[in-house]
């Protein structure tokens, strides 16, 4: 069922069950079409209205690098597809160049109703850049950057 990600912990069945359950949650929640991401609560709740956060690139993408690298690529493709909105947002907030990815999003536009939080999350760009770097280094997929 977990194909390629089924790691075994032989000493503790409860721990093994917990690991497999968490892996299943990640596998079923991940966007695999390049146009969606992992919502903040996965499939377990409606917190944050299902918006996507930078947490995917920081915490979820590394799991897929080791178990399903093709899913990691699809998660990064989602960010690539929202790059035009991120560039427009940078201009809107006074940056003449570059991109500023939103804190909370579905379609690339900022979804936070709390303006101070939505405009203070500049670290997101570095988190995404780091994810692209570790993806390319781990997989050798230089085509991702060229495309």
From TrEMBL:
GO molecular function, one term: hydrolase activity, hydrolyzing O-glycosyl compounds
GO biological process, one term: carbohydrate metabolic process
Alphabetized SUPFAM superfamilies for the sequence: Six-hairpin glycosidases
Domain of life: Bacteria
Residue span, Glycoside hydrolase family 65 central catalytic domain: 20-146
UniProt-listed Pfam families: Glyco_hydro_65m
PANTHER family: GLYCOSYL HYDROLASE-RELATED, PROTEIN-GLUCOSYLGALACTOSYLHYDROXYLYSINE GLUCOSIDASE
Protein name per its UniProtKB record: Glyco_hydro_65m
Origin species: uncultured Thermoanaerobacter sp
